[in-house]
Structure formats: structure tokens, C-alpha cells
Protein: Por secretion system C-terminal sorting domain-containing protein
Organism: Draconibacterium orientale
Amino acid sequence: MMLFSLSFLQLLLKFNKRFYALISVLVILVASTDLSASTKKYLVEESFGYYIDANTWAVAPTGGDTVFISSDRTKALKIRNLKGSKETPIVFINFGGQVRIDSPTAWGALTFENCSYIKVTGTGDESCKYGFLLSANTCGLGFTELSTDCEAEFIKISHEGFMGICVKKDYDGNPPSPAPVFSNLVIHDCFVENVTEGMYLGETKSPGMEFKHVKVYNNIVRNTGRESIQIANMVEDVEIHNNTLLNAGMDNVGSQRSLLQIGDNSVANVYNNILIGAPAHGIINMGKGNNVFTNNYISNCKGMFIDNRLFTDVNQPIVVSGNYFKDNTHSEIIESMNELNVVVINNNKWNSLIPFFLNNSGSKSNHIFANNIHTAIDEIGFTNEQENDYSLAESTPVKYLLLGAPGGPEYFEDKKNNSKNTKSAQIILSSEMIIDEKEGINIYSADYLVDEQGLSLDKNEHASSEIWKPYYNMDYGPYHIYFDLGRQYQLTEIALHDMQGIADMEVSIGEPGDWQEVFTEPCDEYKSWKRHSVNVSSRYVRLTIDESLSAAINEIVLFGYKESGNLKSADAETEEDKTLKCQNPVSKSLKVSIDEDLVGEYNLEIFDLNGQMLFTQEYSDYSSSEININLSNMDLKKGMYIIRYRNDAGITRSTKFIKQS
């Protein structure tokens, strides 16, 4: 058949040149198609609104793209309707340090609504284990509505709201038919504390949205008002393993006082977990069958309770095998009221002076009970509970070494005291950082300089968008734009993508009104990255065209690191956190708020975007942290201006304000 097809094709090619041309074009297109096209990078800062969706940027994130959430972000985020792909999810990652979202009036701190193929990871900073620290009114992290295929890792939730992690859509027991399915839920290496429900996975009522292919592992959940983890409607391929669950049921509410609850319509393979401390049971199983519990350490609770609910697969067993029950306080270690499934209870060990098993099912034919041993059981200890290091202590017996979450310190020793992290990394730029000093007179906006931040310079990936091109001639020149990076950085490299205009572009640092040239790029090579090694410190980076519009640059990439440590303690601020703030927009007067530690003797200065000083005033022995500046006597046109704080100690702070007419 293949020979016939080739011969037939050759015959067509011989007699039909148009067909040949068409095939040639198709071959060229296929050969030139890069199926692994460059991914894009996006930055979410404090200035962004509550909702993030396909309309947030000109081009929406898709599979393989990365969304960086700035460490300056403190307000809640709800991400809606974004979809990655099975092979390449959209990755959300902390950037520039630990992201601390604290929104007491928001339902959730970080919520993904109707999203699919998403990975949220707190691995963006080497100074801390959990790159996100989340707190809100009700929920820390949520995958809600019809979301599916989501992963969460290295996230800490610490608040007094109802849920730590919530993954469900409520149908009140009446879902559409067929029921919606959430596939491939993965939650690992997270830390949840002080909430009511640690992880609320699946609607409690059945039937409901169904979950398939679920993995929950390496998590630490402690000090919860109700269950550490509860699941329901998890119908296929569910694993819960190597979690450390501590001190559940602290609110002592009815039947919700246990550490782990396997709810109705659920299967589960539960193994290698540590469950310590609850007024009720360590594990409650009300699953449908195919529920297997092995090699778990269950201590200081009422042991285990087994029952059945609305959904039961009588052909699937419930197996409790090889577990350690230590210091359990009840009339028995395991009670069963399941009369339908085969229940296998064997090879377990317990040390309390109480009976091991009570069959309250009313059936004597569905329980298999063998080789359960009453014996001494060693106590599990942790490395440093005061510092939330729940790795197993060095004295842990070998038989327990596979149990529980990996643990480890939350913050790493060489970073604890705000020591410098001098590892250079790309500083993701966005159009929101650009201040155009000649706003409105561009052919191609300066936004084109930052629209391809995902390119790899080491792989020699080239920018392809338009160059930044001001007006048609230099009549309005020189032209300047600058980037406000949001804080002070030590810059190690500035890379410009040259499109060969053969004209100079000057790169400067400093601040509005006080610029120092770093280098001048001649722009003399076509489609080439010009990589300039630098060793300068600045919050602002300025580009200047003052010779010719032929200075053709279509992307800039910065590398460096924050000057002060990435880690911010909960009760202390670094020098960089002492800020200058002002109201926006303004009309006749400008109210300026100065951090109390910066009051005293200082100057306030106002500049236009060209760097021309329009106002300066010295404030001596001024104790108030709020200043009102009268703008009525200044001939300020409508637009954007810079206000700068400067004192004799060399500390400067700048921020922008907008003057209305």
C-alpha cells in the first residue's frame, strides 16, 4: 500500500505543478513548525485587581506559560477560566520571596475557579520552604466550581478561617447526570494550621462531583477545629500517604472530631501516615469499598471506626493491615458497623490495655480478623516542633522512617537573618513597570520591550515583536522611558535584543531627576542579544534615545537580586519596607504618608517625568507622619508626577501620583 501511495503521489507531482507547489508549501510549514514554541512569563503585582482571567493581559496565558506572583502581593487573588494543557500546565509561582496574602474580608486568599491544567507552586525562593503564606476569611487555597487537573505544592495556610484547602463544587446531593469529574488532583508538601477544616476535598453529600486520580501526600496539618483531612465522592484511584496530621477536633463539635475521614462514595489507599491527637478517632472510614489502610501510626485518639453509607460496592473489601495503634483511649481500638463489605483486619499492633476489635455491624460473616498483636509501641518524635520542623527525630526507630511528611525547617538557616540572597536571577518585567516620559508620542509602544520575557537567552531564543519606536523624527526628542522595579535590586546583567538600527541607546540607573549612565549600546548587530555585565544597584532603569530613532531594540531582560533579604518576618520590617505613600489621584492638594521611622529632618521633592524638579521643601524636626502639600500654586498640568523623600542619612524613597485637572 505504501509503494502504491508513493507511486501515485509521484505521478501527480509529474503532471501537476500546482499540486507540487502546494505540497512544497505544506512540507515547509510542517518542517518549520516548532511544536515546543517559547513559553511566556507573566507577573502579578500588588497593583493588580482581585480577578485574574484571560482579559488581564493582551495575550492570555496558555499551556506551558508561567505566572509569577510578586512577593509584594498581599491582597487576595481569584484566577478564573484559565486553561493549560495536559502535558504543559500553566504554572503559578511565587517571585522575589515569600508571597504573604492576608485578606480577612475575602472568601479565599488564592482561588482557582473553573480552571484546568494548573500547577501552583511555592518553590520560587530558596530562603523558605513554603513560598506562599495564605490567610483569608474562609479559605486559604481553593480549586472551585468546575476546575480540574490541578496541583498544589509548598504552600502554607495559617488562619482562623473555615478551610485550609478546599476542592469541591456543591450540588447538595443532586448533581447533573453524568456527574462532573475532577481528575488528577494533586496536593503535596503543604502546611495547614489553625483552621476549622484542614483539607475539605469533595462535597460531603453524595452523589456529587466525582474525583478520579487523586494524590494527597507529604502534607502537614495541625491544630484544626474539625478533621485534618476529609474526602468524599472520590471514586477512583485515590492515594493519601505520608501525611503528618496532628491535633484535630479541637472545637469538639459532634462527629467532626477525628483526624482523617473517608466519606461516602469513596475509595482510598491510605498508607505511611502519622495521625496523632484527637478527641474522637484517628480514622473514620465510610467509604464504598476498596479502602485500604496500611502502615499508619495512629496515636492519642479513639483508634478507628468503620461504617458504610449510601454508596457501597459489596465486591470490594476494606483492609486494615500492618498499622500501629499507640495510647488509644476508647472501649476498643477498632469498631466496625459495616455489614456489607468484607472487612479484613490483620497484622496490626496496639499497646493500650483495651480490647482491639468490636463488631457492631450485626453481621458475623463479613469480618476477617487475624494476627493482631498487643505489644509495646515506640513513640514517634519530631526534630523541632517549636520551629514547625516535623521531620522525624534522629532517635526514630528504623521501622518508622518511611512514615509521615518529610518535614524540615520552614526557613533555611543561611537566610534567617535577612542575609543577602546573591544568586542572580531574571527580574520579570511588565508593562505596568514602564514610565514613558514622552507618553503618547510613540509609533510602537515601549510595552513591546517586555512582551517576550519568557525567552531563553542561553538557548539563543530571539524576540520577534516590534521595536520600541517613538515619533517619526527627533523633534520631540530626546526620548526616555524607565522601569520602576518596585524595590532596590543589585543588577548583574542587562540584555538588549538588537535589531540593527546602528544608533545609540543609553542605559542609566538612579532615580527621576538623578540619572547615571551605565553604558551605551550602539545597536549594530541584527537579531542579536547584547548582554552587558554590570554591577550596579538601583530601583530604576532608564533607556534613552537622543541620537536617532534607528536605535532598534525590541526586548530588554534584566538579571539581579534584591539587595535586602527575601525573607520578611511577621513582626518586623526591613529597611526596604519603610515606604512613602500618597493618595491617588489628586487635585488641589497632595497628602503624603511617611513611615514613622523615617520622620525627622528630610526633604520632599516633586519631579515631572522629564526629571525636572518642580517643588522642594525641607522639613526640620517634623514629627508628623502625614504631610499635606498645596498644589494650587504650582502650574501642574494633568498627568503623572514623581514625589521623592530624601534625608541626610542617604535614604531615599519615591512614588508616583496622578494630577487631575
In short: DSSP finds two helices and 54 strands in the chain. Residues 211 and 268 are 11 Å apart (CA to CA). Residues 41-400 form a domain with the Pectate Lyase C-like fold (CATH 2.160.20).
